[in-house]
């Protein structure tokens, strides 16, 4: 395994009887990056993370984490990875600080200063029992427990569920500090908006298959733009539909509306300029809309 690869899977597959939750996933994640793992609920994201943590055995293929076999060397993997599950299991009667101390001793010696610093940054009270915490504060505690040992790799499953916007900003800053120090993050979510603030690359999972891996800046380069133009004379949809990448072309009453990726704008504008223009508007769509236009929601799902 190359020194700069933290995660590598080859043909990773998981089936439950006749139900295939994950099929032939080939994925690499490099040291120092935040990798966003995107897909609708049921696409197989959590299954992937559990395979990487060695909680599940692959039906076929293999997964390596930090140069270790995720299934065979799972104990060694756990020592070097901070994991936040989608449904964190906590002890109702224990306080946040007792959780951190207990887990800290399992990892070696708890770093009390780091625990307190993380809790303060996330506005978490460590002295209250878990049963007295709101859903958001339980999530904050789970984030602290994943981060507190300074792991080489963070595997986070829907980590911002229940966090308010101000805490999310601080959480994003913590992730960036982690990668700046040489750490790596695998962040699973069904929401593009959740990962676009921090991710360097994204992988898109649909019905158990990895259908695309993109750098976020390249996805932005494909960003859709909504174009509206009004003309002095009549035009036809055929005048613009032939422009590569242009979609949703509608021409009514001397007006054109359409959507076009950034790379098609120059050609589209040249076509528009062939006519006498009386008004023109071009607005960039949200990245979420671009994502859906290129990859869609898909049908069906996986465990």
Features:
Rossmann fold, 303 residues, four-stranded antiparallel beta sheet, six-stranded mixed beta sheet, disordered C terminus, alpha/beta, 14 strands, single chain, 2 domains, Alpha-Beta Plaits
Distance between the termini: 29 Å
Helix content: 25-40%
How many DSSP-defined strands? Answer: 14
Give the helix tally: 11
Radius of gyration: 23 Å
Could you say what the CATH architecture of the largest domain is?
3-Layer(aba) Sandwich
Strand order of the largest sheet: 6-7-8-3-9-10
What structural category characterises the helix and strand content?
alpha/beta
The CATH homologous superfamily of the largest domain corresponds to: P-loop containing nucleotide triphosphate hydrolases
- What spatial form do the alpha-carbon principal axes imply? elongated
What's the main sheet like?
6 strands, mixed
Ranges where pLDDT stays below 50 over 5 or more residues in a row are 298-303
User: What is the CATH class designation of the largest domain?
Assistant: Alpha Beta
The string of secondary-structure elements, in order, is EEEHEEHEHHHEHEHEEHEHEEHEH
Mean pLDDT score: 89
**What fraction of the residues are assigned to beta strands by DSSP?**
25-35%
Briefly note the CATH topology name of the largest domain.
Rossmann fold
* Number of structural units classed as domains: 2
């Amino acid at each position: 395994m190359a020194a700069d690869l933290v995660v590598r899977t080859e043909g990773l597959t998981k089936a439950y009887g006749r139900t295939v939750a994950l099929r032939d996933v080939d994925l690499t994640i490099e040291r120092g990056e935040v990798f966003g793992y995107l897909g609708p609920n049921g696409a197989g994201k959590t299954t992937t993370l559990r395979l990487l943590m060695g909680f599940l055995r692959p039906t076929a293929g293999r997964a390596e984490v930090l140069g270790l076999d995720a299934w065979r060397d799972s104990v060694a993997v756990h020592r070097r990875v901070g994991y936040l599950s989608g449904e964190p299991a906590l002890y109702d009667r224990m306080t946040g600080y007792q959780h951190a101390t207990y887990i800290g001793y399992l990892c070696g010696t708890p770093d009390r200063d780091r625990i307190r610093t993380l809790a303060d940054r996330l506005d978490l009270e460590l002295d209250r029992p878990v049963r007295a915490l709101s859903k958001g504060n339980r999530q904050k505690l789970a984030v602290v427990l994943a981060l507190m040992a300074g792991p080489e790799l963070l595997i986070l499953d829907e980590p911002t569920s229940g966090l308010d916007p101000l805490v999310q900003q601080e959480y994003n800053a913590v992730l960036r500090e982690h990668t700046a120090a040489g750490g790596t993050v695998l962040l699973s979510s069904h929401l593009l908006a959740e990962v676009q603030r921090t991710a360097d690359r994204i992988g898109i999972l649909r019905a158990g298959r990895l259908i695309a891996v993109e750098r976020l800046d390249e996805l932005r380069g494909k960003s859709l733009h909504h174009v509206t133009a009004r003309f002095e004379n009549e035009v036809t949809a055929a005048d613009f539909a032939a422009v590569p990448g242009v979609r949703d072309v509608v021409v009514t009453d001397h007006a054109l509306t359409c959507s076009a990726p950034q790379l098609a704008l120059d050609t589209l504008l040249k076509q528009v300029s062939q006519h006498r223009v009386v008004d023109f508007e071009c607005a960039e769509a949200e990245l979420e809309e671009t994502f859906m236009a290129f990859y869609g929601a898909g049908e069906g799902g996986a465990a």
